[in-house]
Amino acid sequence: MNISPSVLRNEEKAIFDLRSLYSRYGYSQYKMSKFEEYDLYVRNKDFLVSDNIITFTDTNGRLMALKPDVTLSIIKSSDKMIENGGIYKVYYDENVYRTSEPGASFKEITQVGLECIGDVDDYNIYEVLLLAAKSLGMISENFVLDVSDLDVIDAVIDDAGIPVSRKRELLSLIGEKNAHGVRALCEECAVCPDKPLRLITAYGSPKKVIPTLREILPESAAHLADRLEKITSCVEAEGFEGRVNIDFSVTGNAKYYNGLVFKGFIAGLPAGILSGGQYDKLMTRMRRTSRAIGFAVYLDLLERLEEDTADYDVDTFILYGENVTLPVIGDAVNGETSEGKSVLAGKIIPEKLKYKQLLKLSEGGDMSHENNA
């Protein structure tokens, strides 16, 4: 398909590119119904981006929901797809129905992502993290992928002696980078705050952060620093040096996630456009024995970016006179479109039309060009 990028919206270009990327890495497309039984979501409401769900009663009396999420449905169907410790690798391009923020109206949101479920090993984790970086790079050259490790955070918290009853509270404070709150909680628990506080300030490239981790992790958890260094440095080596940072404020929901969690950001957007991680705990809650990792790209956020075509409505406007023949006009239009340009032809230039190039066509087929670029 010879489609000019100039005629595709940001969201459409992203879908086109991402589906092609995931297919090349052996992911198959997952298709699902717009509806799912409400019970699936109500049992895992705090896993969802928003717990506002559109429901209706089916003709058979079951309470159904317009799907606000794709991952839960993929997990539900994964058991029949995994045999003998294999891997179930799928990507999706689905519309979900939810509010984007508290108090906002419901929206139909295009979400693209992938899930890797089954006997997940370090290579699978590396591959998913690499695809997250590649996904961001396809959307914008100016991006950063922030990576955290909940196992590392747990090990530091446990080593500090924080009571189990306060761990979730401390994790929330680390996610907020609330140094004052971390210090106060540690004082209340009569433990030294130094190592939890160092997690908050440990931000930057793997080369910068890993030495700090080796200093604050207990010896029994030293292998976690090795794993994090191995995976992130391998992603960097694929051309993403300077784009991958370690940031322990990326915490996710500890009820569902474990191990590596990550968020992706691109310039021009105030919120993360990509979010993912390992969710073995969610698998356990859904009575699955497999491991899992995945991410989603929230393409609705691209609406906030300036469109690539914002400066121009069309690449070329062809202005022709009353006596110019159809073959002459057709040849001129075909010449421009064959170069991947978008073209509009007419006897009058529409008011307020923005074009890069004006091509004036004479009766004999002669052309003169005027550039606005």
Q: Can you walk me through this structure?
A:
This protein has three domains: about 1-140 and about 265-310, 2-Layer Sandwich (BirA Bifunctional Protein, domain 2), CATH 3.30.930.10; about 145-250, BirA Bifunctional Protein, domain 2, CATH 3.30.930.10; about 315-370, S-adenosyl-L-methionine-dependent methyltransferases, CATH 3.40.1630. It is about 35% helix and about 25% strand. The protein has helices at about 10-25, 40, 70-80, 120-140, 150-160, 165-175, 180-190, 195-200, 205-215, 220-240, 280-285, 325-335, and strands spanning about 30, 35, 55, 65, 85-100, 105-120, 145-150, 205, 245, 260-265, 275-280, 290-300, 315-320, 345, 355-360, 365-370. Helix 12 links the parallel strand 13 (about 315-320) and strand 14. The protein is elongated, with a radius of gyration of 26 Å. The two termini are about 25 Å apart.
